[in-house]
């Protein structure tokens, strides 16, 4: 039950009016905890959120450093989990994953460390799986159009052009779509073979 003491019926309690204003550090802690509750975030993402909310740099730095000390912010763990999740779930290649991590504020050394989880064989196997899933949807198109469409899908996911073309050609050959004609997209056409 709210007590009113001549405040004109504003609905605030005496205790609410008597609370001292929160310090910038308390505000920063509350903002960071709220943001980290939904999902892990990088230090830079949290720093950007604090700056956007007008938290002074000094207070933000103090809170972010403390959160790192206690393990609430761990950019290396974030990057590792991101690579694992996005490669497995979306089939993204190292190049696309590196770009995503950089935009989230992960440092170059940590990006490289996280990408070390993926080797070339694993990346190529994922590319083959992506092509296999999409191969059926391209049936009925001519060979060149199928190659462009499938290689384009891989390129948008960050796969190198040479690998994309090699994987697509092999998938089409395995499907029996190789009629012995050149596709015009080999090394002689200006595309590296990898």
From TrEMBL:
<dbReference type="InterPro" id="IPR053926">
    <property type="entry name" value="RecX_HTH_1st"/>
</dbReference>
<dbReference type="InterPro" id="IPR003783">
    <property type="entry name" value="Regulatory_RecX"/>
</dbReference>
<dbReference type="InterPro" id="IPR053925">
    <property type="entry name" value="RecX_HTH_3rd"/>
</dbReference>
<feature type="region of interest" description="Disordered">
    <location>
        <begin position="175"/>
        <end position="194"/>
    </location>
</feature>
<dbReference type="Pfam" id="PF02631">
    <property type="entry name" value="RecX_HTH2"/>
</dbReference>
<dbReference type="InterPro" id="IPR036388">
    <property type="entry name" value="WH-like_DNA-bd_sf"/>
</dbReference>
<dbReference type="GO" id="GO:0006282">
    <property type="term" value="P:regulation of DNA repair"/>
</dbReference>
<feature type="region of interest" description="Disordered">
    <location>
        <begin position="1"/>
        <end position="27"/>
    </location>
</feature>
<dbReference type="Pfam" id="PF21981">
    <property type="entry name" value="RecX_HTH3"/>
</dbReference>
<dbReference type="InterPro" id="IPR053924">
    <property type="entry name" value="RecX_HTH_2nd"/>
</dbReference>
<protein>
    <recommendedName>
        <fullName>Regulatory protein RecX</fullName>
    </recommendedName>
</protein>
<dbReference type="Pfam" id="PF21982">
    <property type="entry name" value="RecX_HTH1"/>
</dbReference>
<feature type="domain" description="RecX first three-helical">
    <location>
        <begin position="28"/>
        <end position="66"/>
    </location>
</feature>
<feature type="domain" description="RecX third three-helical">
    <location>
        <begin position="123"/>
        <end position="167"/>
    </location>
</feature>
<dbReference type="GO" id="GO:0005737">
    <property type="term" value="C:cytoplasm"/>
</dbReference>
<comment type="similarity">
    <text>Belongs to the RecX family.</text>
</comment>
<feature type="domain" description="RecX second three-helical">
    <location>
        <begin position="74"/>
        <end position="115"/>
    </location>
</feature>
<keyword id="KW-0963">Cytoplasm</keyword>
<feature type="compositionally biased region" description="Gly residues">
    <location>
        <begin position="183"/>
        <end position="194"/>
    </location>
</feature>
<comment type="function">
    <text>Modulates RecA activity.</text>
</comment>
């Amino acid at each position: 039950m709210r007590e009113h003491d001549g405040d004109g019926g504003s609905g605030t309690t005496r205790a609410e009016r008597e609370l001292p204003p929160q310090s910038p550090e308390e505000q920063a802690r509350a903002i960071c905890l709220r943001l980290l509750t939904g999902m892990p975030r990088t230090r830079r993402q949290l720093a950007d959120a604090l700056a956007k909310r007008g938290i002074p740099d000094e207070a933000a730095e103090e809170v972010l450093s403390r959160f790192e000390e206690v393990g609430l912010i761990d950019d290396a763990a974030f990057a590792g989990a991101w690579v694992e999740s996005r490669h497995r779930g979306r089939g993204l290649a190292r190049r696309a994953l590196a770009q995503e991590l950089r935009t989230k504020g992960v440092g170059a050394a940590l990006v490289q460390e996280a990408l070390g989880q993926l080797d070339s064989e694993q990346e190529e196997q994922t590319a083959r799986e992506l092509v296999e899933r999409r191969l059926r949807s391209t049936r009925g198109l001519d060979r060149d159009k199928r190659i462009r469409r499938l290689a384009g899908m891989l390129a948008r996911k960050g796969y190198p052009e040479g690998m994309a073309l090699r994987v697509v050609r092999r998938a089409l050959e395995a499907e029996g779509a190789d009629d012995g004609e050149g596709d015009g997209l080999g090394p002689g056409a200006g595309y590296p073979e990898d």
